[in-house]
Design a protein that fits this description.
Elements lengths: L3 H5 L2 H12 L3 H7 L4 E6 L9 H7 L9 E4 L5 E6 L5 E6 L5 H12 L2 E7 L5 H13 L4 E5 L20 H12 L17 E6 L10 H13 L4 E6 L3 H13 L6 E5 L7 H9 L5 H9 L3 H21 L4 E5 L4 H8 L3
Parallel strand pairs: 1-2, 1-10, 2-5, 5-6, 6-7, 7-8, 8-9, 9-10
Antiparallel strand pairs: 3-4
The structure holds flavin-adenine dinucleotide.
Length: about 350
């Protein structure tokens, strides 16, 4: 019979124990690192695909020992479904559910820390508290706090009537929970969560902000409210990142600033990326891409560009190189192996 004592000495127990010991927050990883770290960001699979799609995506990336893996959050959408009688019905669908569970699965499979994204959109404050408690019970003490964009049927972002309007409001809820303050204030002797929180920053300004100074002011407010670090929107010109970093330091933001990096791999992205993310593609890069005969040539140019960006940022001493891998892990592999 397999006794509990035997279990305590088994490999399974040791592995699980090791997992508990190594659970670290992003800021702990940064503080303990002697060199620039790497981290990867992935999307949950489309509903119907299964978790194997995530493992196939991550397997080749894990040999580079990322400090942590981010998993994005995707809110539900309203669509209008046509019925047999010709009428339309409003239905809610969620194409990429499962962020929290995917984080737990990745931790279990690869023994690596994970950072789920948590958004304001579509969440009431109560839903948010429940999601945070789920994460805390799973041993996930990292979270990237994001407002979220407008839903497909909205012209501008609309918060849940009982939810948060800005990322800072969600951040404050987490800081409260870290201090043992729950929504039900009458709860006594509460457990204090220990979330390390990251927030988003925009080297080329958030598209809704009237100007860079105002955007930076709101970013500083997020940091002053308790954010431990900033992860930037993707950029393709390092000068923009360095200028942003300088402006942040000048207004007293001292937390680590992590550059977000993405490869360009198709000609179509020359239009899609600026339109979707409100960032510029430098003419040196777009001119080279326009000369390409097909997307395999674009991928080569995009890979070289990303490698040059990464090397320069690493030489400048950034804490982490954060790669948006978005369906193209092999491109990121080809970059990171050269660093
Ligand atoms: C690293 C990164 C990861 C992302 N991950 C996801 C994801 O997983 N899922 C997803 O749906 N989206 C994601 N996004 C996109 C994000 O949701 C959008 O960029 C969104 O429009 C803004 O989010 P935020 O957290 O920066 O918002 P906020 O910080 O709330 O800022 C939004 C806008 O409001 C302004 N503002 C901020 N505070 C105030 C205030 N107190 N009063 C008035 N104005 C204010 C800001 O200047 C800005 O223009 C990500 C973006 C980045 C950069």
């Amino acid at each position: 019979m397999f006794s509990f004592n035997m279990y305590l000495h088994s490999e399974g127990f040791m592995l699980r124990f090791a997992r508990i010991l190594m659970c670290m927050t992003v800021i702990e990883h940064i503080n303990q690192a002697k060199d620039t770290l790497v981290s990867f960001e992935i999307l949950p699979p489309l509903k119907g695909k299964g978790i194997a799609a995530i493992y196939e995506h991550l397997d080749p990336l894990m040999e580079f020992k990322p400090a942590y893996i981010n998993v994005t959050y995707h809110r539900s959408e309203h669509i209008f479904k046509k019925n047999a009688d010709g009428s339309f019905e409003k239905v809610v669908i969620r194409k990429r559910p499962g962020t929290e569970a995917i984080c737990a699965s990745i931790m279990n499979r690869y023994n690596v820390d994970t950072v789920p994204h948590l958004i304001c959109g579509g969440f009431s404050v109560q839903d948010t508290e429940d999601a945070l408690l789920t994460l805390s019970y799973l041993g996930i003490d990292n979270v990237l706090v994001i407002r979220g964009d407008a839903a497909k049927n909205e012209t501008a972002f609309e918060p849940d009537p009982r939810g948060h309007k800005y990322a800072i409001d969600l951040l404050k809820q987490i800081i409260n929970l870290n201090n043992g303050v729950y929504l039900e204030e009458e709860l006594k002797s509460t457990n204090k969560t220990k979330f390390s929180v990251g927030v988003a920053g925009y080297p080329e300004k958030h598209f809704e902000a009237p100007n860079m100074q105002t955007d930076l002011l709101y970013l500083k407010q997020k940091v002053d409210a308790g954010a431990d670090y900033i992860v930037t929107q993707m950029f393709f010109d390092n000068k923009k990142f360095f200028a942003f970093e300088k402006q942040c330091r000048e207004i007293g933001i001292t937390v680590p600033i992590i550059p977000g990096l993405k490869p360009v791999t198709t000609k179509k992205q020359l239009m899609v990326i600026p339109r979707t993310f409100y960032v510029d593609i430098p003419s040196e890069l777009s001119n080279e891409i326009l000369k390409c005969r097909d997307d395999s040539e674009v991928e080569k140019i995009g890979t070289e560009w990303l490698l040059t960006q990464s090397k320069e940022l690493k030489a400048a001493g950034v804490p982490v190189l954060h790669y948006y891998t978005l369906g193209k892990p092999h491109v990121v592999v080809n970059v990171v192996k050269e660093l």
